[in-house]
Amino acid sequence: xxxxxxFSPTDAYHEATKHSWLSVRQRSGGLDWSTxxxxxxxxxxxxxxxxxxxxxxxxxxLYRVAGITAKKSYPGVEYYLRTNPSAGALYPNEVYFxxxxxxxxxxxxxxLEVASSxxxxxxxxxxxxxxxxxxxxxxxxxxxxxxxxxxxxxSSWKYRDRAFRYVLLDAGHLxxxxxAAALLWEKAYTIRYRIDREGLNRFFGFGRKxxxxxxxxxxxxxxxxxxxxxxxLEQVDPTGSFEPDERIETVYRASGILQGCKExxxxxxxxxxxxxxxxxxxxxxxxxxxxxxSISKEEFLQIxxxxxxxxxxxxxxxxxxxxxxxxxxxxxxxxxxxGNYLKRGDFSAEAGYLCLEQDLGKESAVTIFMVSSGxxxxxxxxxxxxxxxxxxxxxxxxxxxxxxxxxxxxxxxREFLGSEGKILxxxxxxx
Length: 431
Ligand SMILES: Cc1cc2nc3c(=O)[nH]c(=O)nc-3n(C[C@H](O)[C@H](O)[C@H](O)COP(=O)(O)O)c2cc1C
Fold this sequence. Notes:
This protein has 431 residues and is an alpha+beta fold. The protein contains 13 helices and 17 strands.
């Protein structure tokens, strides 16, 4: 058993933000709608914009990363859903990219503006400067280099201290969305966490509201080194309202200090039909209710194998997927991990209870818990989000529903699984 003193700051954050039966019931207060943050960041209208609503492969790629794919209307409320899911549809991340030597885009640094489906040119770059300078290998790179940031108040407005977990999971979904689009385009990629976050945050002029989390690198290096562009960009308010959260700001800083990172050089090729995959990217939604129909063993294994395939990155952490099999034809119900049963029996009611009593966990064909004992919190949590994205799309492509589940009783899940690791994410798939 660990003593409290041996906890790292990220362990301490994870511990402090666990849900329990009691903590959920003791929570006071509803949402303060008057301080609801904006889910869109928009740079000034006079900056040059490139529309992404065109049939060009690069523009399509960018649209697939975070484009709007549905509109929901309720009396008095209208909101838009995107290719990427987000806990509570609060979208606490932004995407920026650098294009160098890329057709259709002047060399420069851009913001992916979701509300207008366009890329906004924030700053043109020359051959001596660029965001590569914030990577470990600061040689000039040709191609696309994406950066994902987190804006915690968008999520902490609702989820309070636990929000940093969602900021990371949602960032992971964006990386997963970029992966899905890169695979379709047949472009190689790697995810980078070993980046100079502070240098980038200064350059982007973020202040305390926003911070860089990761990079999705589709570029190739050249010989010469570059430096970060001089000065910083004009600060643009990404939320409207703001309430600082010291605990989240502390864990953000701590999560940027990485130790003993292992590189994953293996990449994965798409195991699905490309046309069906392209459709799945646009059709993907979170299922709200299951009808309790089974899925087949082959369908489950297809989804599972894709979730387990290597994720190329510069700081790979091992993740375990514990699967509660509820309704899979040809497989006995039980708790299953990588081909072996840890317990046999019908645990569907328990799985529903563990997911904060949500029916999604009970009525699914399979409820999955992602667990890790890794030390590098930001990479391992973003990897969990990316795997969640693979689960969504691999289910969708086979006509199966799916939903991420960020709310669960942490300690009770650990006890049920018989695991000492951190519970990072739950996930339900089924009909
Ligand atoms: C990290 C994460 C956690 C989520 N947790 C839950 C959850 O606990 N319960 C639930 O019903 N939906 C959950 N969702 C689904 C979101 O509500 C959904 O993604 C959002 O409303 C946008 O809808 P869409 O996925 O159909 O685009 C979660 C999604 C993500 C990405």
